[in-house]
Amino acid sequence: MALIEKIDEISSNPRNRKAWLALACIIFAVIIVIPAIFVIFSIPTRWDEIQGVLADSDTMSIIWGAIWNSFSLAFIVTVLDIVVGLPMAWMLVRKNYRFNKYLDTFIDMPLAFPTVALGFSVMVFWGCPDGITVPGLGLVMSPYLMVVLLHLIFTYPYMVRCLSGILEQIDTNCETAAMTLGASKWTAVRTITLPLFRAGLVTGFILCFARSLSETGGTYIVLTMMGASTFDINGFFTGPTLISELRHMSQDPTSGLGDAVPELILISSLLIVFALLMLFLAKTIMTRLKIPWRKVWPRFGRRVSGKKVATAKDSLAFMFALIFILIPSFYIFVCLGTEGSYSDYGGFLSAVGTSFLVAGVATVFDIIFGIPVAMYIARNRGSKRAELLDNLVNVPLIIPTTALGFSLGLFWGGLGLSSWGVLLVIFGHISFTYPLLVRNLVGAIEEVDPSYEEIARTLGAKPFQAFRKVLLPMVKSSLLAGAVLAFTRSLGETGATQAISNTVNTVPIYIVNFINGDIPNYYAAAVSSVMLIAICFVFMFGLRIVIDRMGGKD
C-alpha cells in the first residue's frame, strides 16, 4: 500500500507524468521500433548489390509474386475473420451456455501452439501428404487455399478476442430501452450495438491482417510438405517464407546462391513499406466509413430476432470454430497413435522453462510500458504525435518474424551485442508482442468517456488513483485479453527466435529440430507439442478462473 500511495503522490506532479510518458516512448523507440526497421537503413550500404537484384527479372518475378500472395492472403483471411468472428464473440459474451468458459479457453489455444507444429497438424488433417501414416481427409487443394485454412487458425482468435473485449464494455441498457419502445432484438443490436464495434473492428483488422502477413513457420512447413517451396517461377511463396527459403539457401554452399543479404534487405523493406500503406488505407476507410444503420426493416427484424434464428446462428458459429479451427489444431494428437519413441523429458522441461521466461518477461514489459503509450494515443486523437505513435505501433506487427529477427541481428550485432542470447530473444519477442497489448488497450480506452476520470479528479483523486480506480476496471478485460495474446504469441513463436539466436532453445525451436532434422521424427515432435498444449491449457484455464474471480470483485 505504501508503494501505491507513493506512486499516487508522484503522479500529482504534471512533470512526473510527462517524464514517465517520455521514458515509455524512448524505450518504445530504442528497443522496439528502431531495431525492427533497421533493415531499411541498411539499403544504402548494399545498394550496388540490390540494384543487381532489381535487374534480375526472374528473381523480381518471384519476389513480386510472394508479396502479392502475402497481401491477398492476409486480406481474404481478415475478412473471413470478421464474418465468422463476430457471431462467436457475441455468443461468448452475451449467451450463458455452460460450455462457454471451455470454448473460450480452447479458442485461445492455437495461439500458444508452435507455428511449425500447427502447420504440420493442419497439413495432416486436410491434406494427409505422402509419407505420413496418420489418417486425414486427403483433400487435394492448391497451396493458396491450404495456407488460407492455416492462417484462419492463427488469426481467428485475435478477432474474437478484440470483439469480445469491446462487447464486454458495451452497456446492454440501450438495447433494452430500444426493445421496450418496440424495436426488435435484431434492429436494436444492428442500430445501437454494432456501430460501437468500430474501434474493435479496426483493432481486430490490424491484428489479423498483420498476423497473417507475418506468419512464417507454419506456412513454410505446409508449403514444404506440399512440395511448393521451389525457388523458381513455378514455386509458391509468401514474403516471409521466401525470406526463410533464401536464408536456408544462402547457408547451403551447393545452392549457388551465395550471400542473400541484398535479397533479404529488399524483400523485408518492400513488405514493411507496402504493409504500412495498406494498413493506413484500411484504417482510414474503416474509421471514416458511414453506414446507414438507422434504416429499419421491421418485418425482417422480427423474423431474424426469433429464437430459432439465434440458435441457428450460434450453431453455425460453433460448427465453424469446431471444424475449421479446433479440430485441425488438435489433430496432432492423432500422431500419438503412430509408432515411435520419446524420452527426452529433461530437454523438454528445460525448453519450457526458457519459453515461459521469455514470454513472461516480455508480457510484463509490455504491460508496464504499453499502458502509458496506449492512453496517450487514445486520449489525444487528432494530435500529430499521437497519430505518429499509433502508426509506429503497427510497424513491428506487420514485419515478418524472420525479417524482424534478421533486422534485430543487424542492429544489435552492429553494436557488438550478438552474444547476449536470451536477452536479445526477449527484446525480439517484446517487438512483436508489445503492439498486441497496446492495440487492444487503445480500442478499449477510446470507448470510455474521459469525463469519468475528470469527475474523479474533481473529487480529489490523484491521477494514478483515477486510473486504477476508474479507468482500469473499465478496460480490464481488454488489458487481460492483450496480455494473454502477447504471452501466447511469444510462447508459440518460431521464426524470430531462430533468426535472432542459434543457442536459445525455446519449445518451438525444440520441436522444429525434430521436424527439420535429416530424418524427421514426427512422433517426437507430436509428443512434445501435445505436452506443450497440455501445459498451456492448464495455464490458460487457470488464468480464466483468476480473471473471473477478479471480475466478481468489481
List the helices and strands and how they pair.
Blueprint: H1 2-10, H2 14-41, H3 47-54, H4 57-94, H5 100-112, H6 115-126, H7 143-169, H8 173-180, H9 185-193, H10 198-214, H11 217-225, H12 239-250, H13 261-288, H14 298-304, H15 307-330, H16 345-379, H17 384-398, H18 401-414, H19 422-446, H20 451-458, H21 463-491, H22 495-500, H23 507-515, H24 522-553
Helix pairs in contact: 2-16, 2-17, 2-18, 2-19, 3-13, 4-7, 4-10, 4-12, 4-15, 5-7, 5-21, 5-24, 6-11, 6-15, 7-10, 7-11, 7-15, 7-21, 8-9, 10-13, 10-19, 12-13, 13-17, 16-17, 16-19, 16-21, 16-23, 17-19, 18-19, 19-21, 20-21, 23-24
Tell me what the structure shows:
By secondary structure, this protein is an all-alpha fold. 76% of the residues lie in helices and 0% in strands. The protein has 24 helices and no strands. The chain has helices spanning 2-10, 14-41, 47-54, 57-94, 100-112, 115-126, 143-169, 173-180, 185-193, 198-214, 217-225, 239-250, 261-288, 298-304, 307-330, 345-379, 384-398, 401-414, 422-446, 451-458, 463-491, 495-500, 507-515, 522-553. Helix 20 packs across helix 21. The radius of gyration is 24 Å and the shape is globular. 44% of the residues are buried.
